[in-house]
Design brief:
Length: about 725
């Protein structure tokens, strides 16, 4: 039985993809925050089956009114002496109380002169807000921006302030400028933010409260059930002793664990703690291993069945089902992981050729056979399967994930019983013993991870389970402990969603100002005009605009979280692509992919920074290594928009069209892997000329047009021939047969 190293969490390393580390609460504040977070989680589930009669916006008012105060209690202010790392300060309690009152003000059945009067009266004043309404709305704006600053840093609040300044001072711009407008007064701005469907209570917050929270709860419960630990153990066991086993294990672990964590950084850190010793023994350098871990972790949140949170906003904006968005992501996921796995195979051969790996791995310890693990714990896949099956059956995404969460909770029972028997040395009925792997991590706002027994949290750790159920039997006491841990997992899941709630509320500022001023259409027009500078040819204009859009989204993603990046990108860049007759699904997925890929984009590739912290590598070389592994993810989205055939990569169109475009893209990804890795499988190491030819072939093959495909295949054949010639010359020069 092999023993995997303990997991290092993202919180422990101080890195994360969208949020700052939170307070480590204890005592009364911890209990209060935990109970209130659990109440919000249960409210979110209740809303799925028994929606509030007053409508969805009423629910959003209540949701934000409870969630926003939690941010102030859970996250530090970083204001010197006014800040505390272990508990809320007096100022935090005051701000939390003000946030509660300001958020719930629209639904309070109290009259304050010409203001107040309850929810219906508040809506009736739309466009004609009372002075108290304006004051409350202004306070909420400040509180939302401050909550966003606490959870994600200063960049997004600054971006929001820029949009607000544009809305207020736009009338002072020269009127011959395309982006000039009449200007908005304070009442109009507050009305757009506070009493309309495009501000704080717009689509981003609606998606956060209706979808993202539920999937975050599911991820927390899945970790609690022991599924995350099983996924890592299975990955370690699957590939055993092959020379490329280490890389394959890291990639498989990243993919499986990413379906649980939903965070590229957390996934890279968690899988790195387990697989870095394996990768190191196999001959991987720290930067090389860190890049692979980062790319695999980020790929998981681009992949079905649990895409990144922005995918829910895609579904909402385009008015399609979530399962439709999952279908669009299938082929791009295949291409992304094909590129990583080909790079892994190239790495293994190069490492072996350079003598950096043991010539014989036969002495490596054998993990528990994969078929035993699958036989004993394979039921953990069932909740993921249930989500897909229910979505295909027409069940809403919200109900599907609630049912899957309930199933994951039930499956935590046999997991604990089996692991308790293993820990106690009692043979189980299924035989064999499990790998003592990791309890994979989720993110919690108190700096701990779901599955950490040291905090009294829900845990799948064998030792903790042994203490609670030493004989694998359930007593009243252990059942009570299990229920407590399950509820705590739900609470932690809700608390881990608080940064996303703050970001989505702040994103409402951007969407409201863009809608109210018409900025989106104007910037889209400017982008198209910039794309037409080189040529009037529609294909050149589209290609140039897409390239400029990709660069803009990549830079935007360096500064703001993924969700906000998508919202800004969609309201500004989306219209530009639509004006060039790009189909809405292709435009939306283009924006989605480039928003997510900021996690592996230098110089602020946080997933790579997290992986580098685990492997002991330098940050910048790790980022460039991650970029090499993730290269297909940067190029494939361009295929979506360059030609109508690019939509076939989203599974849209006739089957034969989908197949030939997919096949061409697969060959193109393989050519790019050969170019970046300097190795052609079946031939060996190649020099500059074959690499340049292979790169040119790959880029040509990624342009979805029959002529380009034929040219790309021809160039790839020439690259392979050049590689063969080089190999023959090397053998003659060295005298090897």
């Amino acid at each position: 039985m092999s023993v995997a190293p303990p997991v290092v969490t993202a919180a422990e390393l101080g890195v994360d993809d969208e949020e700052r580390p939170a307070r480590t609460l204890s005592g009364f504040p911890a209990r209060l925050v935990g109970i209130v977070a659990l109440a919000v989680a249960l409210l979110s589930i209740w809303q799925v089956f028994r929606p509030l009669a007053q409508g969805s916006q009423y629910y959003l008012v209540v949701f934000l009114g409870i969630a926003l105060p939690l941010v102030y209690l859970s996250y530090r202010s970083w204001w010197g002496r006014l800040d505390r790392a272990d508990a809320p300060s007096v100022l935090d309690w005051v701000l939390a109380a003000i946030a509660l009152v300001v958020c719930l003000y629209p639904i309070l059945p109290l009259t304050f002169g010409d203001a107040g009067g309850g929810y219906n009266a508040f809506l009736d004043r739309q466009g004609m807000l009372a002075p108290l309404d304006v004051a409350m709305g202004g306070l909420l704006l400040v509180l939302v921006l401050e909550a966003c600053r606490r959870t994600t840093g200063v960049i997004l609040p600054i971006v929001c302030l820029v949009f607000l300044a544009y809305g207020y001072y736009g009338g002072l711009l020269p009127q011959n400028w395309a982006i000039a407008h009449a200007g908005l007064d304070v009442d109009q701005i507050v009305d757009a933010l506070y009493n309309s469907g495009s501000g704080f209570y717009g689509t981003p917050l609606d998606v956060a409260a209706s979808y993202i929270v539920l999937f975050t709860l599911y991820g927390a419960v899945l970790e609690f059930s022991g599924a995350a630990r099983f996924f890592v153990d299975l990955s370690v066991s699957l590939f055993r002793r092959s020379h490329s086993a280490a890389g394959r294990t890291a990639v498989a672990s990243g993919f499986l664990l990413g379906t649980v964590s939903g965070s590229g950084t957390a996934t890279a850190v968690s899988t790195g703690a387990v697989t870095w010793p394996i990768l190191k023994r196999a001959g991987y350098r720290p930067e090389q291993a860190g890049g692979m871990l980062a790319a695999a972790g980020v790929g998981a949140i681009l992949s079905p069945p649990t895409l990144g949170v922005a995918a829910f906003i895609v579904a909402e904006y385009l008015d399609v089902s979530y399962v439709t968005v999952l279908g669009w992501a299938l082929i791009p996921t295949l291409l992304y992981y094909l590129g990583i796995l080909l790079s892994v195979e190239i790495d293994a051969r190069r490492i072996h050729a350079e003598g950096r790996a043991p010539a014989d791995l036969a002495d490596a310890p054998l993990p528990t056979p994969w078929w035993k693990l699958l036989g004993r714990f394979g039921y953990h896949f069932s909740s993921l399967i249930v989500i897909v099956v229910l979505l295909l059956a027409g069940v809403s995404a919200t109900r599907a994930v609630v049912y899957a969460t309930a199933l994951a909770l039930i499956l935590a029972v046999p997991d604990r019983m089996l692991r308790a028997r293993d820990a106690a040395g009692t043979p189980s009925s299924t035989g064999g013993s499990s790998t003592v792997g990791t309890s994979a991590v989720g993110k919690s706002t108190d700096g701990t991870s779901v599955g950490d027994p040291s905090t009294g949290d829900a845990s799948s750790d064998a030792t903790a389970t042994k203490q609670s159920t030493p004989t694998g039997l359930w007593t009243r006491k252990t059942l009570q402990r299990f229920m407590f841990e399950a509820l705590r997992a739900l609470s932690l899941g809700m608390r881990s969603a608080l940064p996303v709630v703050a970001v989505c509320a702040a994103a409402g500022v951007i969407t409201a100002m863009t809608t109210k001023t018409g900025l989106g259409a104007q910037l889209a027009s400017l982008l198209v005009r910039a794309g037409s500078v080189l040529s009037d040819d529609p294909a050149v204009v589209l290609a140039t605009t897409a390239l400029l859009a990709a660069i803009a989204l990549s830079l935007l993603g360096l500064a703001v979280p993924v969700t906000a990046s998508f919202v800004i990108g969609w309201v500004i860049i989306g219209p530009a692509l639509l004006d060039l007759h790009v189909a809405a699904p292709a435009a939306a997925m283009f924006v989605f992919y480039f928003s997510v890929l900021s996690e592996v984009t230098p110089p602020t590739a946080l997933a790579a920074v997290g992986a580098a912290a685990v492997t002991g590598a330098k940050a910048m070389p790790t980022m460039w290594s991650a970029l090499r592994y993730a290269l297909p993810a940067f190029l494939v989205p361009l295929m979506f928009v360059l030609t109508d055939s690019g939509q076939h990569l989203l599974g849209r169109g006739a089957l034969l069209d989908v197949l030939w475009v997919t096949a061409a893209a697969c060959v193109g990804v393989a050519a790019l892997a050969a170019a970046t890795g300097g190795w052609i499988l079946g031939i060996g190491a190649v020099g500059a000329v074959p690499r340049v030819l292979a790169g040119a072939a790959g880029l040509t093959l990624l342009y979805p047009h029959p002529t380009a495909t034929a040219i790309g295949l021809g160039v790839l054949v020439v690259a392979a021939a050049a590689g063969v010639v080089e190999r023959v010359r090397r053998r003659k020069a060295t005298g090897t047969p």
